[in-house]
Amino acid sequence: MKRLLTVLAAAVPLVTAAVYLPTATAESGGSTAAPFRCASDSTALKAPSGATIESVSAVSKPAGDVEVPPVTPLPGDTVKDVPAHCQVTVTLGHSGAGDHAKVQVWLPEHGWNGRFQGLGGSAYAAGDYGSGLAAAVKSGYATATTDAGVGSYLDVSWALDGKGKVDRTLLKNFASRSVHEAAVVAKQVIGEVYGRSASYAYFNGCSTGGRQGYAEAQSHPGDYDGILADAPGINWDEFEVATAWPQVVMNEEHTYPSTCELTLATQAAVKACDTLDGAADGFIGDPAACHYDPRRLIGTTLECDGKKVTFSAADAAVVRKIWDGPRTTSGKKLWYGPTIGSDLTTLAASDGVSVGSPFPVPSEWISTFVKKQPAYNVANASYSEFQQLFRQSQAEYDKVIGSDDPDLSGFRKSGGKLLTWQGQADQLIPTQGTVDYRERVEKKLGGAQRVDDFYRVFLAPGVNHCAGAGNTGPAPTDALGALVDWVEHGKAPRTLSAAVTDTSGKKVTRDLCLYPRVPQYTGHGDVADASSFRCVAPRH
Questions:
Q1: Structural element, H or E, at residue 393
Q2: Omega before 516 cis (within 30°)?
Q3: Quick one: which of 61, 51, 73 has its CA closest to 179?
Q4: CB of 426 within 8 A of CB of 344?
Q5: Contact (CB, 8 A) for 472 and 266
């Protein structure tokens, strides 16, 4: 459970986004054109195409702390010193569907910076539960999110209807429709409350939220001027099945490395490849250049939960297959494996003897959406069955939730900017999948230089999924601020400032490199200081 809480808390993008919110005021809008009016008239709102407005409510909230209730499996949260604001809730439905998607719009009563910020979700939650909304309001944004009419982080009880078939209406809401409708509704509410439109619109999300950002850029390019989409869950139909690969490998190889052994393999790889960038700093600067072979650990003994364990040839074979990623029974590569240096214990968890413990998000995807059998356990799947599941997921869901269409020409034409960063030690979403998408966009739209004009990717060495707890590498400190500068002042970021406090309490800084460049130590200076590194072309 602790493993699950840590990962999901990290993937809630707008809890951490509070750190990255800019404080500058939009040039055209530090003041309102009309008196602030915390009210919204359902007759004045125009429903998004295909939707109907079921209800509208508006509530004034005084300045003070915002208490965010617990949402399984995460505990509650308290956001301190949130200024007075208006909370508008609009419920949408679709004819004959029986769905009820709530859009929440929070608007600061004073000090609005003239900007709108849409917030993404995490895992199977389509939006934010209050922490991100409150943080955005504290930074002067009018902000909005949607629940898409579905469940929370691990709740997929909505997925199957009474006949055991996937509820396509709710899946469409979760995949892309509701996040677009939230933008349409929020912009109208902002106009009502402030008496004028927002000067700029931004989207901010990580993981599921990152995927939503890409879906917006692909299908609704006019919704946002800037999209910050981190560790994006694009290629959903593929990577969600692929992340179950470690469980299948252990089952087929009849070998279940313990948490200690998996950690040993990761630590050994990091140690072996740490200095490839010229500096010993505790993480791998360019994992693609790391070719560590876990067979070097065969025969190593270690203490694990009070018992002596020996890393075996079978353990090494399992780790090699996990890193390599899923393949067909004939050896053809299906998808990417976890990046070398990422924590394997999340996806390859087991009792260390004979039972696998799948991570719940991919497990639910496979059992509920692909198999339509909620009791199905992918940990017992064979290689051939896994291949079938992978292909079935692609065939049924790529067009619905893949969110991986490389044609961003509409977004480029709209003048939008798309900014993405992802950890090179992301244990949940293979970093290479994001790189693969970026390269497909380059092929579609005229090469790297032309794509850099509106879409930039930065990879963060040593950083895990959405820079969660236990992160070792420097994570971006103001990625949204960099996006704002790009959109509003034309300052395209060549690097992203990043920082982390190491185990000794020392602050470590880096300037993350614009893909495909990678960091290289200059040969002098403190390895904890960003100025001691430069960005160079990769050597692999």
A1: helix 383-401
A2: yes
A3: 51
A4: no
A5: no
| 524 labelled catalytic | no
- Which residue among 122, 131, 139, 207 is the active-site one? 207
Rounded to whole angstroms, the Cα distance separating 381 from 61 reads 51
- Catalytic annotation on 122? no
- Distance, CA of 62 to CA of 110 (rounded, Å): 11
Residue by residue, pLDDT tens for the chain (540 residues) are: 556 656 666 655 443 333 333 333 454 444 445 789 998 777 789 999 999 999 999 999 999 999 999 999 999 999 999 999 999 999 999 998 999 999 999 999 999 999 999 999 999 999 999 999 999 999 999 999 999 999 999 999 999 999 999 999 999 999 999 999 999 999 999 999 999 999 999 999 999 999 999 999 999 999 999 999 999 999 999 999 999 999 999 999 999 999 999 999 999 999 999 999 999 999 999 999 999 999 999 999 999 989 999 999 999 999 999 999 999 999 999 999 999 999 999 999 999 999 999 999 999 999 999 999 999 999 999 999 999 999 999 999 999 999 999 999 999 999 999 999 999 999 999 999 999 999 999 999 999 999 999 999 999 999 999 998 888 899 999 999 999 999 999 999 999 999 999 988 999 999 999 999 999 999 999 999 999 999 999 987
φ, ψ (nearest 5 deg) of residue 262: -65, -40
Q: Are 470 and 459 in contact (CB under 8 A)?
A: no
Joined tokens for residue 383? 């290689």
Q: Rounded to whole angstroms, how far apart are CA atoms 146 and 178?
A: 7
Q: What is the 3-state secondary structure (H, E, C) of 39-69?
A: CCCCCCCCCCCCEEEEEEEEEEECCEEEEEC
* Rounded Cα–Cα distance for residues 328 and 305 (Å): 36
Q: Is 230 labeled as catalytic in the residue annotation?
A: no
Q: Which of 85, 94, 180, 465 is catalytic?
A: 465
pTM, full prediction: 0.95
Of the candidates 532, 537, 540, 466, which has an alpha carbon nearest to the alpha carbon of residue 280? 532
* Dihedral sign, Cα of residue 304, residue 308, residue 311, residue 313: negative
**Per-residue three-class SS string for 135-178:** HHHHCCCEEEEECCCCCCCCCCCCCECCCCCECHHHHHHHHHHH
* List 128, 223, 277, 426, catalytic entry: 426
Instruction: Name the nearest CA neighbour of 238 among 123, 435, 393, 432.
Output: 393
Distance between CA atoms of residues 41 and 56, nearest Å: 7
Q: Is 287 exposed, middle or buried (0-12, 13-18, 19+ CB in 10 A)?
A: buried
What would the two tokens of residue 457 be?
Answer: 């990717």
- CA distances to 498, 514, 518, 534, 535 from 531, in Å: 12, 16, 14, 8, 11
Outline where 287-333 has alpha helix (H).
313-324
**How would you list the strands of the sheet with 417-423, edge to edge?**
51-61, 85-94, 101-108, 142-146, 115-119, 200-206, 226-230, 417-423, 455-460
Secondary structure (DSSP) of 416-429: -EEEEEEETT-SSS
Quick one: tokens of 59?
């509530």
